[in-house]
User: Fold this.
Amino acid sequence: MHINFSAEDFVRMIAKIGFSAAVAALGLGAFTNTPIRNVILGKDEHLGQWVGGWWKEPINSTTGSLHEIRILYNPIEADIHAFVRLFAQFGAPEYHVMLGPPDPAFVASQDWPTTWAAA
Assistant:
């Protein structure tokens, strides 16, 4: 048996899942200039700068849902983060996707959430 595994493709998949969840939560307006798009499209080779394993206190639970994704905003650094745990109920690892700063025009609009859990 021969198995092909591409770590780069896996990282891009995690980035795409985190980005998609953030767009579903906030809308595309928050991410007009996000650098994570270049990671997903393979134009940015610095994958570890944007996606990595999360080893600190867990953000998502390991019970209940099959997959868990949490989108958080860090007001100090003005960055949006996605925490992705696929197959959460089986204790799979958690991944951190740095989505970058939201678009300033979106932040100034009425569409920007007024309450956030801090990252």
Notes: The CA atoms of residues 37 and 43 lie 8 Å apart.
